[in-house]
RNA sequence: GGCGGCGUAGCUCAGUGGCAAGAGCGGGUGAUUCAUAAUCACCGUGUCGUGGGUUCGAGUCCCACCGCCGCCA
């Protein structure tokens, strides 16, 4: 059995997991599930990175013991992966004694090979980014030196450090890149790394003395190992490298794929391979750097309030739907945007209409005309040959695309096949065959469609495991997918019980849909200054609420009739039901944005927006101090 | 600042120098009724960012410019 070792980055535990970390892990999970389905012996690793100054500070800020703080967050990550049904085989933590043991062994080995020396480091340090900068790299704002990345103040540090002779591996790395064109993917990421190699690598400092939250440097306890060096070693410490029980190491190393985000490419494509060369281990076969996710077009960040919990989406739409959306809508490797509208569109069009309805309409006929038993096919005719051809082609390209990690394209190919199955069904018109009493042909057409559906369920198994299992159950296909199943036509047994069941996916009506979180339209610090002109564009008015009532079917929305004086009467919809009763609202003088583009909510057009102050679970409407005529302008 | 990438239909994007530039989504028309108002068929003259150039021929190569992004400084 061929082995397959895939890793995600280990996540830094100074903040709670968000959709970005979930994205990486879900993609890795899809690949892992696919490889298992194709008969590989898979080891899928994820975990947490728990050392470093930043974590120490986060813990202190919360008044917690560092280790306890790490334990809590690591648990949150583990819990999240459990909730998202991630099939990782192990969860590594850099505070595990076993990990420390491996790091110790690893670093000692680097020393033995003469790759570590003591030197002096001086430069600017950004605590937030855990990065060091040279004099010419830092920027100056208001006379203060700031980090070129995050613009926070940097501090001057001078340290005696141990250094890794990274420069020694410059040529070897170049060779590695030249001889292995798919060592780093996508290609443009590879080129970026190559360029760094052309310029030449400098040795890097790999220890710190200013704080203690890390793994002690072997032989010099004054130093702790730099968090990045410590972290990278997780990929082999999880396998038992340098410890007594290292059979996993022997079995699974080298990694087949290190799946990472683009921001940590240098560490994985240059530093980590050099470290491996230093200790004499094989290099990973492939480093795949995916892009970043924005949420509704904005960078994910806590301060923006759009660091959405993936679980909310899973709760609302289902795990499979979220996974399908992520893999289908965001081209794997590129940056992409996560938006709830787009998710709903995919759910409605691809899943409910194309796939779900195909399953539903086919099984409905099986139930009606074959008493819920998989029919027995006879001689082929009509489009049957074409269907077989299309199946073969689709399965082939699916396998090729999945193997080369083009996950998005693979799903696109599968949906081309779903469309073909719908066309096949329409052209063969089984409902007409039924009326004419052509039972043999009817049986063949339905069998073929079911077999096609089975193929779809197999190919989508890595992405939508629960849905696929449900489809297997309905088709009376008892087994898990095994190698060879995908390529073989005729896996379904005639005569077995088939279940019609409820539609696989429920559609969401676009007009009647409430988003989980309205993203705050706030820019990051420093970028949120607007001009007077821009502010003047916003027409703020006093309005009187004439009547109010709850909108049926919505938990939050209240529809109001308001009087805006010279602008007349308007309808307004606001998410107030959790804070005010309709009765409380009537008669209130409120502040509205009068020139906002109207928006339809639950079929009601809202012509403006109410202003309110919100903190946590509290919300208070803005009003005026004393009486003033409705329609009054606010400036 | 250096290097690189991108800018193609309302949206998201494909497009080895060569037939009259494509797909999906959305929209429109028709068909159909097995099905979750679903599916199927048909419907796109878009300055291919701008301006030059090379070529028999350029979205596709070259140069300049504009805009966005990435990596390194």
Mean pLDDT across every amino acid position: 85
- Structure class: alpha+beta
Anisotropy-based shape: flat
Radius of gyration: 30 Å
The biggest sheet amounts to:
6 strands, parallel
Strand order in the sheet with the most strands: 3-2-1-14-15-9
Distance between the termini: 73 Å
Binned strand content = 15-25%
The number of strands is 27
Number of helices: 20
Uncertain parts:
518-531
Helical proportion, percent range = 40-55%
What does this structure look like?
With 635 residues, the protein is α+β, with helices and mostly antiparallel strands. Helix content is 40%, strand content 20%. It contains 20 helices and 27 strands. It has a 6-stranded parallel sheet with strand order 3-2-1-14-15-9, with helices on both faces. It has a 5-stranded antiparallel sheet with strand order 21-20-19-22-25. A 4-stranded antiparallel sheet has the order 5-4-8-10. Strand 6 and strand 7 form a beta hairpin. Helix 6 crosses helix 10, helix 13 (340-370) packs parallel to helix 15 and helix 14 packs antiparallel against helix 15. The longest helix is centred in the middle third of the chain and has 31 residues, at 340-370. The radius of gyration is 30 Å and the shape is flat. The termini are far apart. 39% of the residues are buried. The chain binds one RNA strand of 73 nucleotides through residues 134, 136-137, 148, 188-189, 191-193, 195-196, 199, 262, 265-266, 329, 331, 335, 342, 345-346, 349, 352-354, 356-365, 368-369, 412, 415-416, 419, 422-423, 425-427, 429-432, 434, 502-507.
């Amino acid at each position: 059995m061929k082995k397959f070792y895939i890793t995600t980055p280990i996540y830094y535990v100074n903040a709670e997991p968000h959709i970005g970390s979930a994205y990486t892990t879900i993609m890795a999970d899809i690949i892992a599930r696919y490889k298992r389905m194709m008969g590989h012996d898979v080891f899928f690793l994820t975990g947490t990175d728990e050392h470093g100054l930043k974590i120490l500070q986060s813990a202190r800020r919360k008044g917690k013991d560092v280790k306890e703080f790490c334990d809590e967050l690591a648990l949150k990550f583990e819990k999240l992966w459990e909730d998202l049904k991630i099939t990782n085989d192990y969860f590594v933590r850099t505070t595990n004694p076993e990990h420390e043991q491996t790091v110790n062994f690893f670093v000692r080995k680097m020393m033995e090979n003469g790759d570590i020396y003591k030197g002096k480091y001086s430069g600017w340090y950004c605590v937030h980014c855990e990065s060091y900068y040279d004099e010419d790299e830092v920027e100056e704002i208001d006379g203060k030196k700031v980090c070129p990345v995050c613009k926070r103040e940097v501090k001057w540090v001078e340290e005696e450090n141990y250094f890794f002779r990274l420069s020694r591996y410059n040529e070897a790395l170049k060779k590695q890149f030249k001889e292995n064109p798919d060592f780093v993917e996508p290609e443009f990421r590879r080129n970026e790394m190559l360029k760094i190699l052309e310029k030449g690598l400098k040795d890097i400092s790999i220890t710190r003395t200013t704080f203690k939250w890390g793994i002690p440097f072997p032989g010099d306890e004054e130093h702790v190992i730099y968090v990045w060096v410590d972290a990278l070693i997780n990929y082999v410490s999880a396998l038992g490298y340098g410890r007594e029980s290292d059979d996993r190491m022997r079995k699974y190393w080298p990694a087949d794929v290190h799946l990472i985000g683009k921001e940590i490419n240098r560490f994985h494509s240059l530093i980590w391979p050099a470290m491996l060369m230093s200790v004499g281990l094989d290099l990973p076969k492939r480093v795949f750097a995916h892009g970043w996710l924005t949420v509704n077009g904005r960078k994910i960040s806590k301060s923006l309030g759009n660091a959405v919990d993936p679980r909310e989406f899973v709760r609302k739409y289902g795990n499979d739907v979220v996974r399908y959306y992520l893999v289908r809508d965001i081209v794997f490797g590129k940056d992409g945007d996560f938006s709830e509208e787009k998710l709903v569109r995919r759910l409605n069009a691809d899943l409910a209409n194309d796939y779900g309805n195909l399953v539903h309409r086919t099984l409905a006929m099986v139930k009606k005309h074959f008493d819920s038993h998989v029919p027995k096919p006879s001689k082929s005719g009509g489009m049957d040959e074409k269907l077989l051809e299309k199946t073969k082609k689709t399965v082939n390209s699916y396998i090729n695309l999945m193997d080369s990690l083009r996950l998005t394209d693979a799903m696109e190919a599968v949906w081309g096949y779903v469309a073909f199955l719908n066309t096949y069904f329409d052209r063969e018109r089984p409902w007409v065959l039924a009326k004419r009493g052509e039972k043999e042909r009817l049986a063949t057409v339905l069998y073929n469609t079911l077999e096609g559906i089975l193929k779809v369920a197999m190919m989508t198994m890595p992405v939508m495991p629960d849905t696929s299992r449900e489809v297997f159950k309905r088709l009376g296909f008892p087994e898990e997918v095994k190698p060879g199943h995908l390529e073989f036509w005729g896996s379904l047994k005639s005569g077995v019980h088939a279940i019609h069941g409820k539609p696989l996916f429920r559609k969401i009506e676009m007009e009647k849909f409430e988003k989980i979180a309205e993203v705050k339209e706030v820019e990051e610090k420093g970028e949120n200054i607007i001009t007077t002109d821009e502010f003047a564009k916003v027409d703020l008015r006093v309005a009187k609420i004439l009547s109010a009532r709850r909108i049926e079917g919505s938990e939050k929305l209240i529809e109001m009739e308001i009087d805006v004086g010279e602008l007349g009467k308007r309808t307004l919809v606001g998410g107030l039901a959790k804070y005010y009763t309709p009765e409380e609202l009537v008669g209130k003088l409120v502040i509205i944005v009068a020139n906002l583009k109207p928006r339809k909510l639950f079929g009601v057009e809202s012509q403006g927006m109410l202003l309110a102050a919100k903190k946590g679970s509290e919300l208070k409407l803005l009003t005026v101090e004393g009486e003033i005529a409705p329609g009054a302008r606010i400036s």
